[in-house]
Hints:
The protein is mainly α and 235 residues long. 77% of the residues lie in helices and 3% in strands. The longest helix has 28 residues, at 158-185.
Amino acid sequence: MPRKGHRELWLRVASAAVLAPLAVVAAYLEGGWFIAFWLLASAGILWEWLAIVSRARDLTPGGRAGWIALGLAYAGTMLVAPVVLRADPEFGFLAMIFLFAVVWVTDVVAYFAGRLLGGPKLWRKVSPNKTWSGAIGGAAGAVVAGLVVSTVAGIGNGPAIAALSLVLSVVAQGGDLFESAFKRRFGAKDASHVIPGHGGLMDRLDGLLTAALAAAVIGVARGGLDGAGRGLILW
């Protein structure tokens, strides 16, 4: 790996070592701390989105308004989806840990599998560094991560958990591609530079955002608003 790649890797590791524990602690504390954590994340995402859109010179007033509205919905998802999942008093924390494990392992394994194995690009025009080997490796890692969490928690039904983990991993990777397409549309390399090695909050949370939305929808559909955590992980 070139020296620049080593530096990027260590920056990513250092950033994750700070941010991941903060997210877990916020989930454990729940209540106001949890809401405040994701409110800040949501506000940061909206700020990055608006900053990217504001630099575009080819938008009509109506087009700009549409992108701003989409940004509000996108950023709002990063607040609403985790709060809905965590609101389950019995299974909310476990649901968040399951979500974190699936998404984070997807990201880590996809990064290393893509660099080690290379091969055909996943979507060259949108994200030239992502490969099919990385995507498949990330999905496989997510299934393992989901099964480990479910086994440790003693919630059983391995096939359903494996399938759920796979779905959330695919959705997370789709969220990553969506954010890449958005940045490419507006000629931005990174959403911002607030996180060393990752760029901006959008760059770090894109996959978690879409996976959290999917997890919340599944959880609410199966367990209702007050039992979304249970609905997500008990099969």
